[in-house]
Amino acid sequence: MRITRSMVGTVFVGGALTLTIAALAYPAMLGVENTSSTPDRIIANTPYGPLTEADRDFVVKVRAAGLWEYPLGLMAMERGTTKEMKEAGEHLVVGHARLDETCRKIAPELGITLPNQASPQQEQFVATVDAEQGKQFDTTAANIMRITHGQIFPVVAKIRASTKNTLVRALADQANDTVLDHITVLEKTEMVNFDQVNFQQTSPPKLPKEQVTPPPPQPGAPVVALTEPPGLDVNTSSPTPAPTASSTVR
To answer: Which strand (E) or helix (H) includes residue 213?
Structure first.
Protein backbone atom coordinates (compact mmCIF):
# COMPACT_ATOMS: atom_id res chain seq x y z
CA MET A 1 0.00 0.00 0.00
CA ARG A 2 1.26 3.49 -0.84
CA ILE A 3 0.36 6.77 0.83
CA THR A 4 -1.18 9.22 -1.63
CA ARG A 5 -2.10 12.86 -1.41
CA SER A 6 -5.78 12.02 -0.97
CA MET A 7 -5.09 10.09 2.24
CA VAL A 8 -3.88 13.21 4.06
CA GLY A 9 -5.65 15.12 6.78
CA THR A 10 -9.18 13.76 6.81
CA VAL A 11 -9.34 12.96 10.51
CA PHE A 12 -9.13 16.42 12.02
CA VAL A 13 -11.78 18.81 10.74
CA GLY A 14 -13.82 21.65 12.13
CA GLY A 15 -12.12 23.60 14.87
CA ALA A 16 -8.70 22.08 14.37
CA LEU A 17 -8.50 23.49 10.87
CA THR A 18 -9.07 27.06 12.07
CA LEU A 19 -5.95 27.10 14.23
CA THR A 20 -3.28 29.55 13.11
CA ILE A 21 0.45 28.99 13.32
CA ALA A 22 0.63 31.34 16.29
CA ALA A 23 -2.17 29.69 18.24
CA LEU A 24 -1.38 26.04 17.56
CA ALA A 25 0.25 24.15 20.42
CA TYR A 26 3.24 22.10 19.32
CA PRO A 27 3.69 19.18 21.70
CA ALA A 28 6.68 16.90 21.44
CA MET A 29 6.99 14.64 18.45
CA LEU A 30 6.17 10.99 19.11
CA GLY A 31 8.85 9.56 21.32
CA VAL A 32 10.65 12.79 22.18
CA GLU A 33 9.40 12.09 25.65
CA ASN A 34 10.05 8.49 26.61
CA THR A 35 7.07 6.29 25.89
CA SER A 36 8.53 3.73 28.26
CA SER A 37 9.26 3.93 31.98
CA THR A 38 12.41 1.83 31.60
CA PRO A 39 14.00 2.83 28.28
CA ASP A 40 17.29 1.06 29.05
CA ARG A 41 15.63 -2.29 29.72
CA ILE A 42 16.75 -4.95 27.25
CA ILE A 43 13.71 -6.51 25.59
CA ALA A 44 15.53 -8.80 23.14
CA ASN A 45 18.96 -10.18 22.41
CA THR A 46 19.48 -10.11 18.66
CA PRO A 47 22.36 -11.06 16.33
CA TYR A 48 22.94 -7.31 16.00
CA GLY A 49 23.25 -6.62 19.71
CA PRO A 50 20.82 -6.11 22.57
CA LEU A 51 17.61 -4.23 21.82
CA THR A 52 16.32 -1.87 24.49
CA GLU A 53 12.91 -0.29 24.87
CA ALA A 54 14.44 3.02 23.77
CA ASP A 55 15.85 1.35 20.65
CA ARG A 56 12.48 -0.10 19.74
CA ASP A 57 10.69 3.20 20.37
CA PHE A 58 13.22 4.99 18.16
CA VAL A 59 12.56 2.72 15.19
CA VAL A 60 8.81 3.26 15.66
CA LYS A 61 9.28 7.04 15.87
CA VAL A 62 11.26 7.21 12.67
CA ARG A 63 8.59 5.19 10.92
CA ALA A 64 5.77 7.32 12.37
CA ALA A 65 7.55 10.53 11.40
CA GLY A 66 7.52 9.46 7.78
CA LEU A 67 3.82 8.64 7.90
CA TRP A 68 2.99 12.34 8.31
CA GLU A 69 6.05 14.19 6.98
CA TYR A 70 6.02 12.32 3.67
CA PRO A 71 2.42 13.40 2.82
CA LEU A 72 3.24 16.92 3.99
CA GLY A 73 6.27 16.92 1.69
CA LEU A 74 4.05 15.91 -1.23
CA MET A 75 1.78 18.85 -0.42
CA ALA A 76 4.76 21.23 -0.32
CA MET A 77 5.93 19.99 -3.72
CA GLU A 78 2.47 20.61 -5.17
CA ARG A 79 1.32 23.73 -3.33
CA GLY A 80 4.48 25.53 -2.23
CA THR A 81 4.57 29.06 -3.63
CA THR A 82 8.36 29.37 -3.88
CA LYS A 83 11.17 27.30 -5.36
CA GLU A 84 12.66 26.90 -1.89
CA MET A 85 9.41 25.55 -0.44
CA LYS A 86 9.05 23.05 -3.26
CA GLU A 87 12.67 22.00 -2.73
CA ALA A 88 11.99 21.48 0.98
CA GLY A 89 9.06 19.26 0.01
CA GLU A 90 11.30 17.16 -2.22
CA HIS A 91 13.81 16.67 0.58
CA LEU A 92 11.05 15.66 3.00
CA VAL A 93 9.63 13.10 0.59
CA VAL A 94 12.95 11.58 -0.46
CA GLY A 95 14.47 11.62 3.01
CA HIS A 96 11.54 9.87 4.63
CA ALA A 97 11.14 7.38 1.79
CA ARG A 98 14.73 6.31 2.38
CA LEU A 99 14.36 6.19 6.15
CA ASP A 100 11.15 4.22 5.74
CA GLU A 101 12.91 1.67 3.55
CA THR A 102 15.50 1.17 6.30
CA CYS A 103 12.83 0.83 8.99
CA ARG A 104 10.95 -1.77 6.96
CA LYS A 105 14.15 -3.73 6.42
CA ILE A 106 15.34 -3.81 10.03
CA ALA A 107 12.00 -4.15 11.84
CA PRO A 108 11.53 -7.87 11.02
CA GLU A 109 15.14 -8.56 12.01
CA LEU A 110 14.53 -6.96 15.40
CA GLY A 111 10.97 -8.23 15.96
CA ILE A 112 9.47 -4.72 15.86
CA THR A 113 5.90 -4.09 14.69
CA LEU A 114 5.66 -0.90 12.65
CA PRO A 115 2.59 1.36 12.63
CA ASN A 116 0.72 2.05 9.39
CA GLN A 117 -0.78 5.31 10.62
CA ALA A 118 0.66 8.40 12.29
CA SER A 119 -0.42 9.48 15.76
CA PRO A 120 -3.52 11.69 16.21
CA GLN A 121 -1.24 14.62 17.04
CA GLN A 122 0.79 14.12 13.88
CA GLU A 123 -2.32 13.82 11.73
CA GLN A 124 -3.53 17.10 13.18
CA PHE A 125 -0.29 18.75 12.06
CA VAL A 126 -1.01 17.61 8.51
CA ALA A 127 -4.65 18.69 8.66
CA THR A 128 -3.67 22.13 9.95
CA VAL A 129 -1.23 22.66 7.08
CA ASP A 130 -3.70 21.24 4.55
CA ALA A 131 -6.26 23.88 5.54
CA GLU A 132 -3.99 26.75 4.50
CA GLN A 133 -3.42 28.33 1.10
CA GLY A 134 -0.75 30.45 -0.57
CA LYS A 135 1.94 32.04 1.57
CA GLN A 136 0.15 31.00 4.75
CA PHE A 137 0.50 27.39 3.64
CA ASP A 138 4.26 27.88 3.25
CA THR A 139 4.63 29.61 6.61
CA THR A 140 2.54 27.10 8.53
CA ALA A 141 4.27 24.09 6.97
CA ALA A 142 7.78 25.47 7.40
CA ASN A 143 7.31 26.34 11.07
CA ILE A 144 5.57 23.12 12.08
CA MET A 145 8.25 21.08 10.37
CA ARG A 146 11.12 23.14 11.77
CA ILE A 147 9.77 22.80 15.30
CA THR A 148 9.33 19.03 15.13
CA HIS A 149 12.71 18.48 13.50
CA GLY A 150 14.35 20.59 16.18
CA GLN A 151 12.67 18.47 18.83
CA ILE A 152 13.78 15.15 17.40
CA PHE A 153 17.38 16.15 16.60
CA PRO A 154 18.75 15.65 20.15
CA VAL A 155 16.79 12.41 20.48
CA VAL A 156 18.59 10.98 17.46
CA ALA A 157 21.92 11.94 19.00
CA LYS A 158 21.05 10.29 22.31
CA ILE A 159 20.13 7.00 20.65
CA ARG A 160 23.26 7.11 18.49
CA ALA A 161 25.41 7.62 21.57
CA SER A 162 23.78 4.92 23.71
CA THR A 163 22.54 2.05 21.55
CA LYS A 164 24.48 -1.22 21.45
CA ASN A 165 22.46 -2.51 18.50
CA THR A 166 24.23 -2.10 15.15
CA LEU A 167 21.03 -1.86 13.09
CA VAL A 168 19.60 0.84 15.34
CA ARG A 169 22.93 2.65 15.27
CA ALA A 170 22.94 2.68 11.46
CA LEU A 171 19.37 4.01 11.42
CA ALA A 172 20.39 6.76 13.85
CA ASP A 173 23.29 7.73 11.56
CA GLN A 174 20.92 7.98 8.61
CA ALA A 175 18.29 9.86 10.63
CA ASN A 176 20.90 12.34 11.88
CA ASP A 177 21.90 13.28 8.33
CA THR A 178 18.29 13.40 7.16
CA VAL A 179 17.01 15.57 10.02
CA LEU A 180 19.91 18.01 9.63
CA ASP A 181 19.25 18.20 5.90
CA HIS A 182 15.56 18.87 6.49
CA ILE A 183 16.28 21.57 9.07
CA THR A 184 18.62 23.24 6.59
CA VAL A 185 16.23 23.27 3.62
CA LEU A 186 13.37 24.48 5.81
CA GLU A 187 15.50 27.39 7.00
CA LYS A 188 16.36 28.20 3.37
CA THR A 189 12.68 29.03 2.80
CA GLU A 190 13.26 32.12 4.99
CA MET A 191 9.83 31.55 6.53
CA VAL A 192 10.99 30.16 9.88
CA ASN A 193 10.16 32.29 12.93
CA PHE A 194 13.17 31.41 15.07
CA ASP A 195 11.89 33.02 18.28
CA GLN A 196 8.68 31.05 18.06
CA VAL A 197 10.46 27.87 17.03
CA ASN A 198 13.01 28.03 19.84
CA PHE A 199 10.31 28.56 22.44
CA GLN A 200 7.92 25.91 21.21
CA GLN A 201 10.47 23.17 20.54
CA THR A 202 11.89 23.51 24.05
CA SER A 203 8.59 24.04 25.92
CA PRO A 204 6.17 21.49 24.50
CA PRO A 205 2.90 21.05 26.38
CA LYS A 206 1.99 17.62 27.72
CA LEU A 207 -0.53 15.52 25.85
CA PRO A 208 -2.19 12.23 26.78
CA LYS A 209 -0.22 9.23 25.58
CA GLU A 210 -2.94 8.18 23.16
CA GLN A 211 -2.55 11.48 21.29
CA VAL A 212 1.18 10.98 20.63
CA THR A 213 1.14 7.23 19.99
CA PRO A 214 0.36 5.80 16.54
CA PRO A 215 -2.34 3.13 16.56
CA PRO A 216 -1.18 -0.47 16.04
CA PRO A 217 -1.70 -1.91 12.57
CA GLN A 218 -4.69 -4.11 11.89
CA PRO A 219 -3.84 -7.82 12.08
CA GLY A 220 -2.68 -9.04 8.70
CA ALA A 221 -2.63 -5.58 7.15
CA PRO A 222 0.17 -5.02 4.61
CA VAL A 223 2.90 -2.62 5.66
CA VAL A 224 2.43 0.83 4.11
CA ALA A 225 5.50 1.65 2.01
CA LEU A 226 6.65 5.22 1.48
CA THR A 227 8.28 5.07 -1.93
CA GLU A 228 10.69 7.53 -3.47
CA PRO A 229 9.11 9.25 -6.49
CA PRO A 230 11.05 8.69 -9.71
CA GLY A 231 13.07 11.50 -11.19
CA LEU A 232 14.01 13.36 -7.99
CA ASP A 233 17.76 13.94 -7.73
CA VAL A 234 17.98 14.81 -4.02
CA ASN A 235 20.94 14.34 -1.70
CA THR A 236 19.83 13.90 1.92
CA SER A 237 23.05 12.31 3.20
CA SER A 238 24.53 15.65 4.24
CA PRO A 239 23.12 19.11 4.88
CA THR A 240 22.90 21.77 2.24
CA PRO A 241 26.10 23.91 2.28
CA ALA A 242 26.08 26.75 4.78
CA PRO A 243 25.53 30.29 3.49
CA THR A 244 28.58 32.34 2.54
CA ALA A 245 29.81 35.31 4.55
CA SER A 246 28.18 37.65 2.04
CA SER A 247 24.72 36.18 2.57
CA THR A 248 22.12 38.40 4.16
CA VAL A 249 21.51 37.73 7.86
CA ARG A 250 17.84 37.66 8.74
So the answer is: none
Q: How far lies 168's CA from each of 77, 110, 216, in Å?
A: 30, 9, 21
For residue 175, give the nearest of 242, 106, 129 by alpha carbon: 106
Sign of torsion over alpha carbons 126, 70, 117, 32: negative
- 58, with CB counted inside 10 A (0-12, 13-18, 19+), is buried
**φ and ψ of 8, to 5 deg:** -85, 135
Neighbours of 162 (CB within 10 A): 15
Chain mean position to CA 145: 8
Q: Does the model's pTM come out above 0.85? A: no
Q: Which residues contact 183 (CB under 8 A, 6 or more apart)?
A: 146, 149, 150, 153, 239
How many other β-carbons are positioned within 10 Å of the β-carbon of residue 120? 17
Taking alpha carbons only, the member of 26, 169, 145, 130 closest to residue 93 is: 145
Residues 107-160: tens digit of each pLDDT: 999 999 999 999 999 999 999 999 999 999 999 999 999 999 999 999 999 999
- For residue 225, the cross-strand partners are 2
End-to-end Cα distance, the chain: 43
**Short-list 75, 72, 159, CA closest to 122:** 72
Looking at the chain, list the stretches that DSSP marks H as alpha helix, in order from N- to C-terminal side.
Answer: 53-79, 83-110, 120-130, 134-162, 166-188, 194-202
CA distances (Å), origin 241, targets 150, 181, 235: 18, 10, 12
